[in-house]
Design a protein that fits this description.
By secondary structure, the chain is α/β, with parallel strands linked by helices. The protein contains twelve helices and twelve strands. Helices cover about 30% and strands about 20% of the residues. It binds adenosine-5'-diphosphate (ADP) and magnesium ion.
């Protein structure tokens, strides 16, 4: 059987590392006196996808679309309201505290802004060594040695262990954040916009480091980004999120060459094309207005208020995820025809199809 975002597999092949089904996360709003009357904000709405062992799965969408909440819910840092997260065959949503702790070691997070997420009053030695202490992994000299190895693994010098975060550049600090995540030898890493806060000139170095580490350590990544440019060269599959939902999912190449959802196409139109001639003839699709609030999302298709194709059907019927071509799923009543993105002339008028 095929699932959205899944890969058809004979039954005897290994199961995906992560299987997410119907994942939903609500946040209560304000503090209404009567619990049942409290309003909720649905940050993540009914996500189903799988992540294979060793792959880089990218989650892309505008700010506020629910990417970080999804990443946090996978690591059980946010309690899902509905749905399940299976990690290596175990349902994390009904694990006891002890088992959860053991599993948590296997899944780590790299944050967007290392200067905010790392404790500025701790020397690097303690920042990188702390997770080992928490999980009782290494002590004393052994831990000290591990810290030095980890710093070298991420391209820093071992003697930097004595220094404090303010002595580091943004890129170096992100390397420290990566070393800290690796300290407990995880198998799965959620990298939440790990290069967005960094200088453009060093973004590629950090991406290269993450790729290099993946090859050396056999890591599986969920890589979160707000635009498609970043993930193009490093992801195997891409899921595009809009207002809490996945609107399209597929192999990286499919998504870039022939997006099916108008929102994906709009996101792609902002990604520069290497060929200057093609680039000169392209017109970006400008989406009007902001993403609506998840407190009061549009009926039917959530993207319809900004979509140039939307009609009454889009307001009345919520589009289901449909496999448009093998391996590529999109939720749209009027999916894009197969064209090579980047070579087309994008002409968009308000009522144009
Ligand atoms: P993204 O990472 O894609 O920018 P987030 O997952 O951070 O999106 O947020 C999704 C939605 O959930 C946003 O509307 C955001 O304001 C809301 N949200 C996130 N965290 C909380 C929280 N702890 N309490 C209430 N609302 C939240
Ligand atoms: Mg975020």
């Amino acid at each position: 059987m095929r699932e959205p975002g899944g890969v058809a597999q004979p039954a005897d092949q290994v199961a995906p590392l992560l299987e997410v089904e119907g994942l939903t996360v609500d946040f209560p709003l304000g503090d209404g006196m009567i619990r049942s009357r409290r309003q909720h904000l649905r940050a993540v709405d009914d996500l189903t996808f799988t992540i294979e062992r060793g792959e880089t799965f990218a989650l892309v969408g505008e700010s506020g679309s629910g990417k970080s909440t999804t990443g946090r819910a996978l690591l059980q840092l946010e309690e899902p309201t509905h749905g399940s997260v299976r990690f290596d065959g175990t349902d994390l949503t009904d694990l006891g505290r002890r088992d959860m702790r053991r599993n948590r070691r296997r899944m780590q997070m790299i944050f967007q802004d290392p200067s905010a997420s790392l404790n500025g009053r701790m020397p690097i030695r303690d920042i990188v060594g702390e997770p080992m202490a928490v999980h009782h992994l290494a002590k004393g000299q052994h831990r000290e040695q591990r810290v030095r190895e980890l710093l070298e693994l991420v391209g820093l010098r071992a003697e930097m262990a004595d220094r404090y975060p303010h002595e580091f550049s943004g890129g170096q600090l992100q390397r420290v954040g990566i070393a800290r995540a690796l300290a407990v030898e995880p198998e799965f890493i959620v990298a939440d916009e790990p290069i967005s806060a960094l200088d453009v000139s060093i973004q590629a170095q950090v991406v290269n480091l993450l790729e290099d580490l993946q090859g050396r350590l056999g890591l599986t990544y969920l890589f979160i980004a707000h635009d498609l440019a970043v993930v193009r060269h490093l992801s195997d599959r891409v899921a595009v999120m809009y207002l809490g939902r996945i609107v399209e999912i597929g192999d990286c190449q499919q998504i870039y060459e022939a997006p099916k959802h108008p929102y994906t196409r709009a996101l792609l139109s902002a990604v520069p094309v290497p060929d200057p001639q093609v680039e000169a003839t392209r017109e970006p699709i400008i989406l009007h207005g902001d993403m609506p609030s998840p407190v009061d999302p549009p009926s039917g298709c959530r993207f319809r208020t900004r979509c140039w194709k939307a009609d009454q059907r889009c307001a009345d019927e919520t589009p289901e995820m449909v496999e448009q071509v093998p391996g590529q799923w999109a939720a749209c009543h009027y999916p894009e025809p197969a064209t090579a993105a980047g070579t087309e002339h994008v002409m968009v008028s308000k009522d144009g199809r």
